[in-house]
Design goal:
about 180 residues, alpha+beta, two-stranded antiparallel ribbon, 7 strands
């Protein structure tokens, strides 16, 4: 949070790219001062598609919402009093003056966004947190395993991506490929 204070003191903004699954078990970036948070929703039920397409998410502090292009989805209540999502605000120009619209929303991503939402609803908060803990546990097992092989994780804090410090990366990559182990 110290870096956030330094950035804000310099009158700059903090943009945080993150993973939705990680956010089920981590403190949300908005709570520690991020101005904008964005990332991919691919993790939520959308199969890997050779790099895309994937739906994304974008959120910001209340003070920035009028500067955001596109639509803002808010939480309301349905007829039974349960929380429900609704379109709270969208760029007015989208329907009135298309040539001056400030957004570039791709409606082809709606299916992917709906898939991600369905995945989240199906698993629920507890299920998503269980999946996140399982993913993180697998990364920890991997980090411990490579440590036993004489390599070391470059960072002690990670969610699912373990960066290794190795002497000969090319040789390690070749060995992994030979044994059909995916690394990048």
């Amino acid at each position: 949070a110290n870096i956030v204070k330094q950035v804000h003191a310099a009158e700059a903004k903090i943009v945080f790219a993150t993973d939705l699954l990680a956010l089920t078990v981590l403190t949300p970036p908005g709570e520690w001062g991020a101005d904008v948070v964005c990332g991919s929703a691919q993790r939520f039920g959308v199969p890997m598609g050779f790099g895309g397409p994937h739906a994304a998410f974008f959120a910001c502090q209340e003070s920035h919402k009028r500067k955001m292009p596109g639509r803002i989805i808010g939480v309301s209540r349905d007829s039974r009093g349960k929380p429900a999502l609704r379109m709270a605000m969208q760029t007015r120009e989208q329907h009135i003056r298309r040539d001056k619209a400030t957004s570039n929303i791709c409606t082809a991503q709606a299916l992917l966004a709906n898939t991600a939402v369905a995945y989240a609803i199906y698993h629920g908060p507890d299920g998503l947190q269980a999946i996140a803990r399982k993913v993180h546990a697998a990364a920890r097992v991997f980090a411990k395993g490579v440590e036993r092989l004489g390599m070391k994780a470059k960072y002690v804090d990670f969610f699912d991506t373990v960066t290794l410090s190795v002497k000969d990366a090319a040789s390690l990559k070749q060995t992994c490929e030979k044994h059909e182990i995916n690394i990048r």
